[in-house]
Amino acid sequence: DLGVQSGIVDRAGAWYSYKDTRIGQGKDNAREFLRENPVMAREIENLVREKYGVALLAPVTETPKSKAASDDEAKA
Q1: Which of 7, 17, 29, 47 is the most buried (most CB within 10 A)?
Q2: Can you tell me the mean pLDDT for 53-64?
Q3: Any bridge partners for residue 21, and if so which?
Q4: Is 69 helix (H, G, I), strand (E, B) or coil?
Q5: Is it the case that residue 72 has pLDDT exceeding 80?
Q6: Once rounded to an integer, what is the mean pLDDT over residues 18-36?
Q7: What residues contact 72, with CB distance under 8 A and at least 6 apart?
Q8: If 0-12 CB within 10 Å is exposed, 13-18 middle and 19+ buried, where does residue 65 land?
């Protein structure tokens, strides 16, 4: 909601998008997309934090999916 209010996330009808990426139709789908894409989620969160003068968080360097894949490779 803050992303839309601050103009960082666009909303057209039920669709939410960030830059050129559609992140979901409806708030629940957009929320799920951001859970699955933590790098983008952190980028949006930091832009919102910057706009409101709140301390930024460290960037996310890998997604949970890629971490799971690297854990599997380490076990092999």
Answers
A1: 47
A2: 76
A3: 18
A4: helix
A5: no
A6: 95
A7: none
A8: exposed
The whole-model pTM stands at 0.70
- The per-residue pLDDT for 13 is 94
**Domains, in order of start, for the chain:** 2-75 (3.30.250.10)
CB neighbourhood size of 19 (10 A): 11
16 beta partners:
11, 24
Q: Helix, strand or coil for residue 43?
A: helix
Q: Are 17 and 23 in contact (CB under 8 A)?
A: yes
Q: How far apart are CA 62 and CA 56, in angstroms?
A: 18
> With contact defined as beta carbons under 8 Å apart, do 57 and 65 qualify?
no
Q: Is 51 exposed, middle or buried (0-12, 13-18, 19+ CB in 10 A)?
A: middle
